[in-house]
Amino acid sequence: MSQYLKVIADSSRLEILDLLSCGELCACDLLEHFEFSQPTLSHHMKLLRENDLILMRKDGNKNMYRLNKAVIENLTDKLSLLSSEAVPCICHDMDKGSC
Amino acid sequence: MSQYLKVIADSSRLEILDLLSCGELCACDLLEHFEFSQPTLSHHMKLLRENDLILMRKDGNKNMYRLNKAVIENLTDKLSLLSSEAVPCICHDMDKGSC
DNA sequence: CATCTATATAGATTTTTGTCTATATAAGTA
DNA sequence: TACTTATATAGACAAAAATCTATATAGATG
């Protein structure tokens, strides 16, 4: 889980996900919205893809990206378990007050 | 938001939050569950506190920690907006296909 | 085929961050 | 007061990560 969070925790990548949240965009559309270079965008998209947070299709020489909403939902669901009560979790194995 | 996520994205801190999800624990209880040193734990707790993800009270010479569930809920709520439709978001300002 | 556009890769560099050791502080206890 | 336990701080160091420039590839188009 921390691996997914690390990918999302970068402000540029989070903004990319936000931009994609309304629908498909190509890399060059995204690039125009950022200050960083094209190889940097390529690097971010690769990370997002490798971690299944986005999906890609080829359209001519363009890469069209969209959110993988299922994976993102799954991540937020798991994260919300932290603030919910009475779920199976590692904290049950803790011995309190042993120090 | 990415600041919060960066704090949570570390696997040690995520595990600390998980351990705290069942209730209050002192730093020394937590320390016994990890391989790293006491100063490292202290550093992690400081980060979690500075970002309001946990709350602390003093009990003698011990620090008692608990989750700040409100903040964590707020974070997961905002994150879940990514995978939901039709919310106000920066992607509406995008000009698609301008490249 | 030559060229342009869109994207990827390689490699270097800088920043960030997680960790350590050593030491300090602060509270409890004999 | 001396000592022990719990925690914090300072400073160093190493690993990870974000960025860049330069270059390569791949598809579209004249």
Rg estimate of chain A, integer Å? 18 Å
Sequence of strands across the biggest β-sheet of chain A: 1-3-2
- Largest interface, and how many residues on either side? A-B, 46 and 46 residues
Sheet with the most strands of chain A? 3 strands, antiparallel
Assembly level? homodimer
Low-confidence stretches of chain A: none
The SS-based structural class of chain A is: alpha+beta
Rough shape of chain A? Answer: elongated
* Beta-strand fraction estimate of chain A: 5-15%
Estimate percent helicity of chain A: 40-55%
Number of strands of chain A: 3
Q: Mean pLDDT of chain A, as a whole number?
A: 92
Order of helices and strands of chain A: HHEHHEEH
- The count of helical stretches of chain A stands at 5
Kindly report how far apart the N and C termini of chain A lie: 29 Å
